[in-house]
Specification:
The complex is a heterodimer of chains A (200) and B (533).
Chain A: H1 15-51, H2 66-90, H3 94-124, H4 133-164, H5 174-199
Helix pairs in contact in A: 1-4, 1-5, 2-3, 2-5, 3-4, 4-5
Chain B: H1 13-17, H2 22-50, H3 61-96, H4 105-127, H5 141-145, H6 150-177, H7 190-221, H8 235-269, H9 276-290, H10 305-333, H11 342-365, H12 367-373, H13 377-407, H14 413-439, H15 454-484
Helix pairs in contact in B: 2-3, 2-4, 2-15, 3-6, 3-7, 3-8, 3-13, 4-6, 6-7, 7-8, 7-9, 8-9, 8-10, 8-11, 8-13, 9-10, 10-11, 11-13, 11-14, 13-14, 14-15
The chains are: A mainly alpha (200), B mainly alpha (533).
Chain lengths: 200, 533
């Protein structure tokens, strides 16, 4: 192969920065793919709703609004804590960053507790996964989302441990950045879920 | 040659099973998809044996249902969808863009293991009695009535889907981020454009079928009721979701094949591709349009008449970019210096057969005609012209074209031309009569048929046995050539493309120094054209 032709400039990028951007693009594509996983379920929900004569279907309870609203606030705060943690880490304040990371983990766990409470109340009101399409779609959507929250929490826990051990700093925050992208994605899906399933 | 070839070092089974070299992973995939191809063919043999006589005598109706289901599941999910991207794509995408590997080499290896896991689970389902739903898993039969191993097969296909997603993700990121200096988008070989378009569909379509199969499995195993009409569920909803992926899946199979053909036609006509940008953007157009035509599988399923009309019109639209490709390949031949080497024979086969498959696709997009031939052998013949006449022809053509690069040796040209001819004849004898059968009204998926239709069925079965022989010959001589074939130089075809600038077979690192690209992808026609080396 010929060597660089004279006069043609090849812009310099540090290999680390190049690799980091590659990983982030990988995460973006991954999340785009995962969005389609949820899109399929939202489509199912939409079709069931569009075909129903009354909503919620006869015999199905009304869903609570306040408790899921609380869950929305909690999950949003968790995402915000993660943003804060990254900002602190960029400035080299590793200890405060670890605290913010821990806060994101705790808030995420609170979300799961609230979600479980919602499930219990809805279940007690008579909505079963197997009664019909409505129950099936409701539990599938919220269940799939909760499963993603659990995965995120495991990752956050690992990140907190790593941060406390000093594994991350201004020069090394790619794992946190990638998981933050994932976590924001889980938050956005929840927001859509809250609006379509609980509010509208 | 300074560095050792990727085939030679490191040695040992362990070094192969834990490799992150895209070229070795391509070989791992080649071995696995070939195994599944012959497994799928075995089911086809059984089907054609049963259809030799009008009476349903060789196998029971129930067994026959399992045979065509397993034929479809194995061929589509474990051979056709992965074949070209994971074998030729894995091998060539980094080499064509001047990279040392894909963006995420370990993810690439993981995708192979995910494929093997999913495929093994489905194999296990076959051993435990198989599935009888058809590869389409239509509800409520699959969720309520079928007595086959729907759950196991569904989980197997579900898992394999993630291998597809990982491969697509890897290709997209690689093509964006790993191109050699100077290699702009319009300097990319059309093979890369085709793989980019395919990857988009893999990444955005596959999750939908994953979710759909998960819901079917959950409905069968856990009692969810989304598709169950008895509880107010909607079986048509399943069809919408299924075809939202499975129609694009057809383009996942044929787009990479089109990429292969663009390389073959230029290399063996010794001419630059006619209308590069049109061919490139036609790939993207097919990928985008492919997501909006799924309803043409459901003209008689009870969707609204208006939906049917819209889907019909959109399906006609797909013919535009497809025809652009066919016209441009043909125009490339004009005043070219065409040589009839084996890969070019396959390319000619592809262009002709894909055209027939595509044109009959237009018949099927027409609402009125589709009502007449829906669920008949006309449909079976149509998609076999695309999948077998299109994808497999291109896969074999590509395999022959890049075989010197992959193995470092040349295949026996005489045998190769002979088998290409056998395959072409066998293919047409197998599937052309099926167009007639379908038009005469023979429905698909039955193991018995009226005696009047026997002649055409016997022709089809005879063709299938010729086709089978045609597929076995390359299998034997390609294997043979690895040991006994003549060694070849870096660029035996005098072709353009970065992959031909490295030794055959390439060293593990592909390129000793990162190549710098200063010219267009096809340099056959210009006076100054020279093979850089």
């Amino acid at each position: 192969m010929t060597d660089a032709v004279m006069g043609e400039l090849v812009p310099y990028r540090s290999p680390r920065a190049h690799a980091d951007r590659t990983s982030r693009l990988g995460m973006v594509i991954f999340l785009a793919s995962w969005a389609m996983l949820f899109a399929a379920l939202f489509f199912v929900y939409g079709m069931i709703r569009a075909r129903a004569d009354v909503w919620p279907p006869a015999g199905a309870p009304r869903l609570p609004i306040a408790l899921p609203a609380l869950a929305t606030v909690v999950l949003a705060s968790s995402s915000a804590a993660l943003v804060r943690s990254l900002a602190l880490l960029e400035r080299g304040r590793v200890r405060s960053a670890s605290l913010a990371l821990g806060a994101a983990l705790v808030l995420g766990t609170v979300f799961l507790v609230v979600q479980t409470t919602v499930w219990r109340s809805v279940h007690a009101a008579g909505l079963e996964p197997a009664t019909g399409p409505y129950g099936s779609a409701f539990y599938s959507l919220t269940g799939l989302h909760a499963a993603h929250v659990v995965v995120g929490l495991v990752a956050l826990a690992a990140l907190v441990i790593g941060a406390l051990r000093g594994s991350y700093g201004p020069a090394r925050l790619l794992p946190i950045r990638l998981w933050a992208m994932y976590w924001h994605f889980v938050g956005v899906v929840w927001l859509l879920l809250y609006v379509t399933v609980y509010l509208v | 040659m300074s560095a050792e070839s990727y085939l030679a070092s490191p040695r040992g089974v362990r070094s192969w099973l834990l490799t992150t070299d895209h070229k070795r992973i391509a070989i791992l995939y080649l071995v696995s998809v070939t195994l599944f191809f012959f497994l799928g063919s075995a089911f086809a043999v059984a089907i054609r044996l049963e259809l030799l006589t009008p009476a349903g005598d060789a196998v029971q109706a129930d067994t026959y249902g399992r045979l065509f289901t397993m034929h479809g599941v194995v061929m589509i999910f474990f051979f056709l969808i992965p074949a070209i991207p994971t074998v030729l794509g894995n091998f060539l995408v980094p080499m064509m863009i001047g990279a040392r590997d894909l963006a995420f080499p370990r993810l690439n290896l993981l995708s192979w293991y995910v494929y093997v896991l999913g495929a093994s689970i489905s194999l296990w389902a076959i051993v435990h009695g198989g599935v009888d739903t058809g590869w389409t898993f239509y509800t409520p039969f699959s969720t309520t009535y079928s007595n086959g191993a729907v759950v196991t097969t569904g989980i197997g296909v579900f898992i394999t889907g993630f291998s597809s997603i990982l491969t697509g993700l890897n290709f997209i990121v690689t093509i964006h981020r790993m191109r050699a200096p100077g290699l702009g988008w319009y300097r990319l070989p059309l093979f890369i454009w085709a793989h980019y378009a395919t990857s988009l569909m893999m990444v955005l379509g596959t999750p939908v079928i994953a979710m759909t199969l998960l819901l079917v499995v959950a409905e069968r195993a856990l009692g969810l009721g989304i598709f169950d009409p008895a509880r107010g569920g909607d079986p048509i909803l399943f069809q919408h979701l299924f075809w939202f992926y499975s129609h694009p899946a057809v383009y996942i199979m044929v787009l990479p094949a089109m990429g292969v053909i663009s390389e073959l036609v230029t290399a063996f006509a010794k001419k630059n591709i006619f209308g590069y940008r049109f061919v490139a953007w036609a790939s993207i157009a097919i990928a985008v349009l492919g997501f909006f035509v799924w309803g043409h599988h459901m003209f008689v399923s009870g969707q609204s008449a208006y939906a049917g009309m819209v889907f019909s019109a959109l399906s006609f639209l797909v013919a535009v970019p497809s025809a652009i490709k066919v016209f441009n390949w043909t125009a490339t031949l004009y005043r070219g210096s065409v040589s009839f080497r084996t890969p070019m024979l396959y390319a000619f086969g592809f262009i002709g057969l894909f055209t027939i498959g595509g044109l009959t696709g237009l018949f099927l997009s027409a609402l009125g005609l589709d009502v007449h031939v829906h669920d008949t052998y006309f449909v079976v013949a149509h998609f076999h012209y695309i999948m077998v006449g299109g994808t497999i022809m291109a896969f074999l053509g590509g395999l022959h074209y890049w075989w010197p690069k992959i193995s470092g040796s040349s295949y026996p040209e005489g045998w190769a031309r002979f088998s290409a001819l056998v395959i072409f004849v066998g293919f047409n004898l197998t599937f052309f009569p099926q167009f007639l059968l379908g038009y005469l009204g023979m429905p698909r998926r039955y193991h018995a048929y009226p005696p009047e239709l026997q002649v055409l069925n016997v022709m089809s079965s005879a063709g299938a046995s010729i086709l089978g022989v045609g597929y076995l010959i390359p299998m034997v001589y390609l294997f043979w050539s690895m040991r006994y074939g003549a060694r070849v130089a870096a660029n035996p075809w005098g072709a353009s493309g970065l992959e031909w600038t490295t030794p055959s077979p390439p060293p593990t690192c592909n390129f000793e120094t990162t190549p710098v690209v200063t010219q267009d992808p096809y340099t056959y026609s210009s006076e100054e054209a020279q093979v850089v080396g």
